[in-house]
Amino acid sequence: MSVVTVADEIRPTAAMIEAIEVFFDFGQTPALRGASVSIREGEILAVMGPSGSGKSTLLHCLAGILVPKSGEIRLSGTRIDTYPESERSSLRRDTFGFVFQFGQLVPELTAEENVALPLLLGGVRRNDALARAREWFGRLGIDGLERRRSGELSGGQAQRVALARGLVARPKVLFADEPTGSLDSLTGELVMELLVTAARQDGTTVVLVTHEPRVAAYADREVVVRDGRVSSLTPDLAP
User: Fold this and answer.
1) Which CATH number belongs to the domain containing residue 16 in this structure?
2) 164-188: per-residue pLDDT in tens?
3) How confident is residue 101, by pLDDT bands cut at 50, 70 and 90?
4) Is residue 110 situated within a structural domain?
5) Rounded Cα distance, 81 and 72, in Å
6) What is d(CA 17, CA 116) in angstroms, rounded to the nearest whole number?
7) 20 and 36 Cβ atoms separated by less than 8 Å
8) Best CA proximity match to 208, nearest among 95, 49, 45, 92
9) Chain-centre distance of CA 42, in angstroms?
10) Are 180 and 103 in contact (CB under 8 A)?
11) What is the tally of structural domains in the chain?
12) In DSSP terms, which residues pair with 205 in a beta bridge?
């Protein structure tokens, strides 16, 4: 299959979120070298590549966690890499959702409190936030676990709690960084099926970083990061 560069595919008016010729260094070590990618509203994009290729760095730039050395990050056509940290933090709280490899649940909180956390940080009243959080337990097949803490959950249960936390505020974009990396294959497939179903129902755009082809197969489209640049494995979606 021929590999084409992504830079030529970018159409700013059609993109939910995009990186345009992004460069980023860790000290003297280049991580991204002109990386470009465009993700449409409601699309599930798999970002693949070997360890150290820059795929997680690209995700962190798209999410406003890291600020590129040069290039642009745009959300619905608006440049966000120039925002001050306070505004990028607000985006991460109100507009973006996150799911990471090991869940990163807060051990002192119950499962339902972990799910409700983005709502609480966004100013939602505690009772309302917990009520909205509980709706996800049945939806993701973990009802009955609301009052358990992370140490009382299996890996698959904890990751579904993390998925609920990432989606509870109905983000425009969900960033998932190796969300099945710590799970066995069967549990990982279940988590991916739940992620895709929930994202489809809510129209959420998903940026999925993975090195596993079986996980990438759940996406609409795949790109590969190598040596800090992005190339496309599958055709861009039709306008």
Assistant:
1) 3.40.50.300
2) 999 999 999 999 998 888 788 888 8
3) confident
4) yes
5) 6
6) 25
7) yes
8) 45
9) 13
10) no
11) 1
12) 173
